[in-house]
Structure formats: structure tokens, C-alpha cells
Amino acid sequence: MIQIQRATKKDARAIALLGRITFNETFGHLFRNKQDLRDYCERTFSVNKIAKGITKEENLFWLATVDALPVGYAKLKLDMPSEFLAEDKVCQLQKIYVLQDFLSRKIGWKLQFALVQQAKQLGFAHIWLSVLHSNTRAIGFYKQNGFKAIGKHNYSIGQEGFEFVAMAKRL
What gap in Å lies between CA 125 and CA 120, rounded to an integer? Predict the structure, then answer.
């Protein structure tokens, strides 16, 4: 049975582990220097950082489980304007990560649905996200869910440079 629930501080360990595994599954092959990858994961997906992030009012996390096993999570950042949107009441879908073995179960869609519904209830007018330009599966997923490309930007992790597509939709 698939369950989607708002995450609490007690879920920080599961989310930190899911973040590390799913980031490596999705992006690990893009890193020539594996130490850059390890350093990024240690900074971004530490239990302490995730726990602090969950307690911040502007961050909302969801945890997806299948038969009580944590398999994915999502993060919504409230009041997060984009350089590509000249709008008020904007939030950012910062992460939807699902373990590869569970991608076919539409867990990403369920996580996305939960956070979009929450954003609407909170009165946000737009939601935006960034997705790696070469991640055609994710881009297709977001297009199917009403997101449109609104710009491009670059981001570096260690020695690696990445190009991202910014996408948004009106809520």
C-alpha cells in the first residue's frame, strides 16, 4: 500500500538516506570526480541538515512509503520567487526523489499532487522548479502535469557544471 504523508523531524533519517540514494541513482554517473559527489551528498543530505530543514516554516516535506518502507520524498519551499516569473505568491517544488525500483508506481505523481494541492490551499499563484536539461523523463513528467519551460540556468557542484531548465505552472 502506498502512503503519502507530511514529513516530520522524526523522518529526517529516512529522507536523508533517500536523498543520497536517489541523487546517486539519478546523477551519480555525471560526476567525473566521485569525491565531488560524496561531498555534495554529505552537505546536502546530512540527517542534521534535513532535520533543520523540516522544522523551518517555509519548507514542507512529504514522505512516500510502500508497505511502511520509505521509497521517496518531496520538498516544497514557500515564498520562493524565481528570476523567470514576475509574479507574487510563488513557491518552488525543490525536490521529488523516488527510488528507481518504485518509479513505475506513480509515486512521483502522488507526491507532486500532494504538494501542489497544499500550495493551492496556501494561496500560491504559481509553482516553479528546476530540472536537469538532459533528464527527459522528468521533463516529460512535469509537462504532463502542466508545467511549461520558462528559462534556463546553470549550477555547479565541485568541478561539474550543469544546465537546468526552469519550469512553472499557474495554480
Answer: 7
Q: What is the CA radius of gyration of the chain?
A: 15
What are the sequence ranges of the domains in the chain? 2-170
Q: What is the pTM (predicted TM-score) of this model?
A: 0.93
In the three-class reduction of DSSP (H, G, I as helix; E, B as strand; rest coil), residue 133 is classed as coil
Long-range contacts at 99-105 (CB < 8 A, ≥ 24 apart):
99/18, 99/21, 99/22, 99/25, 99/71, 99/72, 100/22, 100/25, 101/71, 102/64, 102/66, 102/71, 102/72, 105/2, 105/66
**Which residues are 5's β-sheet partners?**
63
- In the chain, the amino acid numbered 65 is T
Instruction: Write down the CATH number for the domain with range 2-170.
Output: 3.40.630.30
Residues 100 and 72 sit within 8 Å (Cβ to Cβ): no
**pLDDT digit string, tens, across residues 119-141:** 999 999 999 999 999 999 999 99
pLDDT, one tens digit per residue, over 74-83 is 999 999 989 9
